[in-house]
Amino acid sequence: MTDSVPTPAVQIVRGEIQPWTDYTGYRSPAGGEPLLALLDDLLPASAPTALIVGPHSYPVVELVAARSAAVTVLVRSVSDAQELRAAVPAGHVTVITGALDGLVDVPPFDVVIAADGLDRVLGADSPALDWPARWAELRRLATGDALVVVAVENEFALTGLYDRRPADERHGDDEWRPLHDDAARPTSPRQVAEALGERVTRLYATFDAAGTSHTLLDAAAAGSTRPGRPGARFAVTGLAASAAHTPLLAPVADGADAAARAGLLAAVAPGWLAVLGSGGAIHTAYASLDSGGVLLADLDEAEWTLSVRDSALEPAGRLPDTESVETLLFRLAAAEDVPGFRALAGRLGAWAGLADGVVLLDDLYPEGDGFVRGLTRPAGEDEAAALLAAAYHRLRDRLLRAHRRHPWPPWMTSTDDLVTTWLSMSGVADDPGAVKRGREIADGLAEPAADEPDLRTVLADAAADRQRATELAGKVFGLERTMRYRDQSLRTREQQIRTMRDELRKLRNSPAMRLHEVSRKVAKVRDPRAFARALKRRILKS
Description:
Elements: E1 11-12, H1 33-42, E2 47-53, H2 58-66, E3 68-75, H3 78-87, E4 93-97, E5 109-114, H4 131-139, E6 142-153, H5 158-161, H6 189-196, E7 200-209, E8 212-218, H7 219-224, H8 230-242, H9 252-261, E9 271-276, E10 285-288, E11 294-300, E12 303-309, E13 317-320, H10 325-334, H11 338-352, E14 364-367, E15 370-373, H12 384-401, H13 410-413, H14 417-425, H15 432-445, H16 455-508, H17 511-523, H18 528-541
Parallel strand pairs: 1-4, 2-3, 2-5, 3-4, 5-6
Antiparallel strand pairs: 6-9, 7-8, 7-9, 8-10, 10-11, 11-12, 12-13, 14-15
């Protein structure tokens, strides 16, 4: 019989807190598939020592433990440390509970991971350290040539600017010195690079869903992209994931397009992830896929090279760094350039006959005389006309949902006539069956409705409701006026009928009417002698 090896105990340093947890609440610990993929590429095959500071998901700790000879994990909550110790019982992993400033008298580490940032590293009894002081505490724990990964939250993010909640409802109660009120905290890519020093080798704009990473996009690539390009699509998708459960003033996609046009998309990301020192080869972008796995993207001049990790999807290959077909069509519609719209639709119709599966125009990019599809490739067994109709139905829905400008009248946009018109521009003959089937396919591909609509949509819907109420009030007024006219007409007719009845009553009692009755009866007498005898008998009886 083999004796079981006891699990090492949790060590305690100054600044521990209990009862408390950083693993449940409004923000999850740092984790997610894109972060794991980045660390998998970045970490050396075997590091002598590694330090993880702050709440991180168990898979992150396990990955660092697999690539390091000795790992130290520092969390401030005693209960979190105990649960982490039970989840990762490896003997070369040391779990410490306490504050960052309480970790003293330890040799510097070769790898330091602070992917959760420096917000949740102090205890209730810690000194009021601002962001530079916290960074200094973290830097003293790293060797001169250490690999350091540190996250910085952005208070200038679009998700924060569009958040309609009051300021006191946006953050949890885990900050005894709120860093979002810290004037010394860096709040732009340039400020982050200057604050971290010359050892910064890569800076990512991070887009996460309540702490779980969704997209990591190189800050330089995010700053150079423009609306409709693949880089902007990565960022907008990440922003949508970040804002999925936040009550918004307006759709973040509108602000993202404006920021991309200004070259400020990296400046309005929810945060940044900085890499200091050298490590393995890493990619320009890491993004979560709805079907599972991680998209790896590299930008080389005017072309993206795409691959997929841990997914059943085939590698996407290459993608030109051009604007999507949807962006081009939206621009032509806003300019009311119907001939230009028709020309692009004609090119699309000639190409769609050779495509397999449903075409998503926001993930379709022109190249030469043809087009290149992105990674999103929904299957479809229908004919080309129905698949193109589905693409146009989806384009129409997105056009109207964003209240974009276009040259077509309302009676076309409220029916399938607009899709039929676009199909005719693409060279597809009028086919009601294809249009109907396209509507069914588009409904299956529609984005799920938000839990709570943004304020701009609410106000637009309210304005539309007011206009509709005004129109209905006008119709009600017209119907009421018609009813009044008809009521007056009925009362006039009723008075005329009553007058005629009175005249008839007077006529029945007049001598002329009595004479008429007598004459009518006399006219019925056919035998005067018999009538005279009958009249004589009645007189005698009386």
